[in-house]
Design goal:
Helices cover about 40% and strands about 20% of the residues. The chain is α/β, with parallel strands linked by helices. Strands 1, 2, 3, 4, 5 and 6 form a six-stranded parallel β-sheet that branches.
């Protein structure tokens, strides 16, 4: 099975909770999972076979949370060699804001610009829809994991 590192960006803790739920489900599916709450570029360069899964909320005007902002800046400034690397995206936001989904989209684009290969479509969780974010993420991750 696959080795997966979940890169978490969270302010209020919802993305952390979703990341932990997804990690538990992936472990149930026999994958090896680490959850990283303070990722930087060295963490993603350690094992080129490890699949990366971004799980981030958005804050402010579509910004990334502080605990994942450094990774984004390193990706866009230092251009690490991650071409061909597999990744996925879970993006949590609130569509009542005009900048809905911008933080996760920025990370998605940063990975893609460096030649990384996204697995499946991103999961976008909208707080305005009133759905259970953990449940939605678990349902999504089951399908996502089939593509590994």
């Amino acid at each position: 099975m696959a080795s997966i590192q979940i890169l978490v960006g969270s302010v209020m803790g919802t993305a952390e909770t979703v990341a932990e739920a997804v990690a538990a489900e992936l472990r149930q599916l026999q994958h090896t999972v680490t959850v990283n709450f303070q990722a930087d570029v060295s963490d993603i360069l350690r094992d080129e076979n490890e699949i990366l899964l971004v799980c981030t909320s958005n804050t402010g005007s579509g910004d990334l949370p502080d605990n994942i902002q450094a990774l984004y800046l390193q990706l866009t400034r230092d251009f690490p060699r991650i071409a061909g690397r597999q990744y996925g995206v879970i993006n949590l936001g609130d569509s009542s804001y005009t900048t809905f989904n911008e933080g996760g989209r920025a990370l998605d684009e940063a990975f893609a610009d460096l030649g990384a290969r996204r697995i499946g479509d991103p999961l976008v969780l909208d707080a305005c829809e009133g759905l259970d974010a953990e449940e939605e993420a678990i349902n999504w991750i089951k399908e996502w994991a089939k593509q590994l």
